[in-house]
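Exercise: predict the fold of this chain.
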Amino acid sequence: MRSGELIRVFNGRDGEWLASLQPASPENTVDRQKPRSGRIRKKDAVLLVAADKSCLRPQPYNEIHATLMFSLIKSKQVRLVVEKATELGVTSIRPVVSERVQQGRTLGVDVEMTKLLAVATNAAEQSERLTIPSIEPLQTLSEALCSIAAAPCSGPRALFICEERSDTSIPLLDALDEMAEQFTSKPFESEPSDGIFQRAQIEPIFLVGPEGGWAEGEVGRAIEALNTAIEVGSALSNSDTYAPTLQVWRVSLGSGILRAETASLMVLSVW
């Protein structure tokens, strides 16, 4: 990039600003190998923001925090899920290890997480959103649910566990209707322009299973671990913001069998 070039910048807290790329010092900024290009090496550059007139967009104040949890799948599909989830506004992405994840698929995950953050950053820039979702470390399903239970938040949360053709699950839209009536006394479809999560200030958490579905009893065991973590945490904490209401819905996404990445994007479309 060249000296004086204008760039739009954001930090996830203060909105979007217009900045200019400037040399950090007169002596060592221009790349000596290309003396006529005027290009500045990354380590020699600073961004200057004119605070009085360069704010392009304020930071949204009413963003709803949404979490996508999904069982680890192939690297290419994981990158697709992260990219599209970022474009759709998810604030936290949590890959998890389920019982049916193939052995060896978790190898090199630490390196992959760094790449996923780069994917999320690029997707945020492409979609012009002013925040980048967090990419959480890989955990088992029970560990991830317990981490969510232990995380402080300011309002109720709803966990939607997606299952294939389960007798204990209900259609996702029916679950949304129940939640809408419970928290807002209005049907889910009563105000199409204003989503249920925004109206009720509910933080949704979507959990999508692995290829081939969950192992027998896996979801039930994870829910038991979640409930235990909430009970223990509530007993040990004196804070009113610790583990507020976390309601669990076991939902289906229709009669068809969806690929894991398709199911992830489908559930995100509802909010």
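Check your answer against the key: Helices lie at 75-87, 109-127, 141-150, 172-184, 196-200, 218-236, 260-268.
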